[in-house]
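As a warm-up, study this chain.
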Amino acid sequence: MASVLVSSIIDAPVEKVWARIRDFNGLPSWHPRMVESHIEDGKAADEIGAVRNFTLASGPKVREKLTAFSDEDFLVSYSIIEHPAPISNHSSTLKLRRVTDGDRTFAEWTAEFDAPEGEADKIAGGMGANVFQGGFDALQKHFTGKS
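Now compare it with the structure written out below.
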């Protein structure tokens, strides 16, 4: 099983960062690699089992299922159920924690998944750099006014 862990410090209070990212259907509003999203079957965006169907800026569609959500713990977990890369058994969590020194946010995004031998490292590298770090960079730019 491949794994990815990316973390970052965002120069904003955890409540503000959470307010920006908590909408499971809201990726296009804060992540530059996502351009359109909708929740299937009329479910609420914070309902466990909700499936978001979104389009990447490069064109492919991705479907992800919400598996955990907590406003109290600033946490969202999901599994990829449809993706252009050959992955399976995917589980990912985006969690925020309060940094009291400067009222900042520690953000951590993790994933585990299976992939064909020889492709896991490439897929994990792209997921970590493009999706996870790309999202953190966009949040940092937003909150520092450099977007």
